[in-house]
Design brief:
The chain has 315 residues and is mainly α.
Length: 315
């Protein structure tokens, strides 16, 4: 088992390296010139050359990539081109806001999804199972931005239950923060609950069709006991995987949701940085998203290995 975990960790590190190379290459392919964007159209060739040298833009691409990667590993993310402030000072507070929103949505969505998935599996083929699957398919089919706009229309504009903009600030009390972030969190919850519920149902049903589960039913055990004692533990690995995948989505896939609700998170921050061609900010934000996604999926794989008895106790 330890060997498998070490291999998964090594694969995660390799994936992060590939992600960093793609991020750096992608930002270099953006149209326009950074020095011209900073100095404006009236800049002289001499000033443009001096700025490119100051920013290291005159160096070969591979050298700039290694320098940037080393800075990310050591925590030296450089300076913002737009306002000449340290990238770390701008980045981490907004990433903390994104993590807070993701945690809010995860704390609501994960238990609801698992319970609904178990209930649907136990009542397979019944009215509840069919109804909850139809509702889940409907929410999965709706794009996040459209679902968010629907929630704003009904819960904010028509019924005035919640604010349409997620305006948060430092020192805000917890009650006001919950009220301000409920609509964007609810948007994320509705999408992720549907996905996790369907995968939980599928994982439990695949186990319940096994011979040992049928034997437990033949012994006269109650359905609840069979599901909780026999089916659920053996379906835990795929459930953990899909939960981790959706939590990773909550962190990395909130760009549109943050933009819709004007939430001051890392996703909206990265969109603004792209518009300003602030490459250090764009690269750092994209790399943080990529690292969060890879780390969470690596944790899910390691948890699946730990939950698999055949891998914990190899012959």
């Amino acid at each position: 088992m330890i060997q498998l975990i070490l291999k998964r960790v090594a694969l995660g590190v390799l994936t992060l390296l590939l992600v960093s190379a793609l991020i750096f290459a992608g930002t270099q392919l953006l149209p326009g010139d950074v020095a011209s964007a900073i100095l404006g159209q009236n800049a002289t060739p001499q000033s443009l050359a001096a700025l490119r040298q100051d920013l290291g833009l005159d160096l070969p691409a591979w050298q700039r990539y290694l320098s940037w990667l080393y800075g990310f590993v050591t925590g030296d993310l450089g300076m913002s081109l737009a306002n000449r402030q340290p990238v770390a000072d701008l980045l981490w507070p907004r990433f903390g806001n994104t993590m807070a929103l993701a945690a809010y949505a995860a704390l609501v969505s994960v238990p609801i999804a698992v319970l609904l998935g178990l209930a649907a599996a136990v009542r397979r083929g019944g009215m509840f199972d069919r109804g909850i699957n139809i509702v889940a398919l409907a929410f999965v089919s709706l794009p996040e931005y459209f679902l968010g706009l629907l929630l704003i229309l009904f819960l904010s504009v028509q019924f005035n239950l919640l604010p349409s903009l997620a305006d948060t600030y430092s020192g805000m009390n917890f009650g006001d923060w919950l009220r301000a972030t409920t609509l964007p969190a609810l948007t994320l919850v509705l999408v992720t609950v549907a996905q996790m519920m369907r995968m939980t149902r599928t994982a439990v049903l695949s186990v319940m069709d096994q011979a040992y589960v049928e034997t437990a039913f033949l012994k006269g055990l109650r359905t609840k006991r069979v599901v909780l004692r026999h089916a659920l533990p053996n379906a835990a690995a795929p459930i953990v995987n899909v939960v981790a995948f959706n939590i990773a989505y909550l962190i990395t896939g909130v760009v549109l949701v943050e933009a819709i609700f004007n939430y001051n998170g890392l996703g909206r921050f990265m969109v603004d940085a792209v518009a300003k061609r602030d490459l250090p900010l764009v690269q750092a934000a994209a790399m943080v998203f990529g690292a969060a996604y890879v780390i969470l999926n690596s944790i899910a794989d390691i948890a699946a290995i730990a939950l698999n008895p055949r891998l914990r106790h190899p012959r």
